[in-house]
Write a structure and sequence with these properties.
The chain is α+β, with helices and mostly antiparallel strands. The protein folds into 2 domains: 47 residues, no CATH class; 113 residues, Endonuclease, Chain A (3-Layer(aba) Sandwich). It has 4 helices and 8 strands. The strands form 3 sheets. A 4-stranded mixed β-sheet has the order 5-6-7-8, sandwiched between helices. The termini are far apart.
């Protein structure tokens, strides 16, 4: 492109899965990459103010309000598999504690499809805690996990069998089908 370095623009080569991609970016205050004294690109330190949330409080609130708890992609995968296996079910049992994602009344079984981040799947790489407002996030996410345990205990007391499926385990369709057969038939 032949741009001067002082123009505020730079061409960045990114290699992903063997494919080289070029992108033109501006070196402004909102850019996540900075030039070091030697001229190389670097990421700012974690305590750098530009690493804070770049969205306004209102926009972040709007984004978070669009995250839904029903009909998520992992939930649809499990429902599709159960239907192919011949099981018939109800969705989001309103009369049961915790409003389970899938209710199989004939088998007296409920299925929860949990996201690893929101429900704190231990020893999972998706179970991370955001760095910004860490104490608030820990309280919220640990509260979710504690509420899950309470709701499962209540369901067991009512005589229901509880199956919890984690988002990260849904990739293995054969393993998931075996797990569901054991839980529902056994």
């Amino acid at each position: 492109m032949g741009m001067k370095p002082s123009s505020g623009l730079f061409c960045c080569a990114i290699r992903r899965k063997g494919v080289r991609t070029f992108s033109l970016s501006a070196t402004t205050a909102s850019s996540p990459l900075r030039r070091s004294r030697s001229g190389r690109l670097r990421r700012p330190a974690k305590d750098d103010p530009c690493m804070r949330d770049r969205l306004t409080k209102e926009r972040r609130s709007w984004n978070m309000s669009r995250i839904r708890g029903k009909d998520t992609a992992p939930e649809r995968i499990v429902r599709s598999l159960l239907h192919r296996m011949g099981y018939r079910f109800r969705l989001h049992g309103k009369k049961l504690p915790g409003r389970p994602d899938i209710v199989l009344p004939k088998h007296k079984t409920v299925v929860f499809v949990h996201g690893c981040f929101w429900h704190r799947h231990r020893r999972c790489r998706r179970c991370t805690t955001p760095k910004h407002r860490r104490a608030w996030w820990l309280k919220k996410l640990e509260g979710n996990a504690a509420r899950d345990r309470i709701q499962q205990r209540l369901l067991r007391k009512l005589g229901w069998r509880v199956v919890v499926l984690w988002q990260c385990k849904l990739r293995d369709a054969v393993g998931l089908e075996k797990c569901l057969r054991v839980q529902l038939d056994g």
